[in-house]
Amino acid sequence: MLNLLYKSSLVELREIAEKEGIQKSGSVEVLRARIIKEKILSEIDFSWEGIQAIPHKKLGEILKIFGIKSSGSHKERRRRIWLHLNYDSRRMTLERLVEMDKDTLHELCRRLEMPMSGTRTILMGRVAGVLTNQSKGWGRIKRSLHRNGIQEINIDFETHDKIDEKKESMTIEKFDEDISTAYLEDAKELMIMDIDKENSIVQGNLLSIQARVAELERMVGTILREYGGKWGVLEKDLLIRLIERRGWPIDENKVRERLLLVATDIAENKGGSIDKLESDKKVLRYEIKPVINRIRMKMKDSEDFLKKEK
């Protein structure tokens, strides 16, 4: 069926969708992705939360089934599959971003795992950066699949393993490469996000580390290279020890947590294998606490108001 979907025209795809009871609106690419999602990969949760939980290697396999680019870091793969399943690449263009309001752009930044602070122009620039980086990687299947369908059925596993080893070696070499200026700018902004809510000591420490983000990026790359691309508890502990030796101001828990959050984001953008559960704990610990505090304040205000009414 997958081979048939790759080679089918819009009319043929609509006939398949109608027969299978699937919504048949949209372009060729949108309809093909919908059919693959609902008939071939129906057991997989493709909600935004579900995509976040899919392991790095499995995401690559899923992208191949959709017939689109499968390489890249874990975050790049998550972004690509989410865009592929939720937007038409012919309509989701840089020009279209200009027409979007701030709330829409804010939500897009959240789904694309980008910082959500800033003006409408800043938000638009972030989304545009992702679309440019993912250009031609999502939306349309590879031309060879459209022309020829699936050609190779029998796999030489010995050759396949050698290719994987070569790719892994090339990936480890890339850990030494600098990430793009755009990613560094995002890392700097993430380092001081909501800084005005912190005390003066934490603010000063975060600003001090923000000025050293490029050095942090190089340290993360070195650790990834030495540990085969892994980024988990041991690698984070090593980073902290290196930073303490350099005398960085990380005595405050909030500063240390923010630094590890940014370092993990850098490691992921470099293609590292992230300990997802540990990463989620760090993010949730930071994000949930302010929310709880705000709820408590609102509850207290409500109680005070009710007492006055009485």
Count of DSSP-assigned helices: 17
Gross morphology is globular
Strand order of the largest sheet: 1-2
**Class from secondary-structure proportions:** mainly alpha
Overall mean pLDDT: 79
How would a crystallographer describe the biggest sheet?
A: 2 strands, parallel
Strand content: under 5%
Q: Spans with pLDDT under 50 lasting ≥5 residues?
A: 153-173, 277-289
Radius of gyration: 23 Å
Helix content: 55-70%
Task: Report a brief summary of the structure.
The protein is mainly α and 310 residues long.
Structure description:
This protein is an all-alpha fold and 310 residues long. It has 3 domains: 43 residues; 95 residues, no CATH class; 131 residues, no CATH class. It is 68% helix and 1% strand. A two-stranded parallel sheet has the order 1-2. It is globular. The termini are far apart.
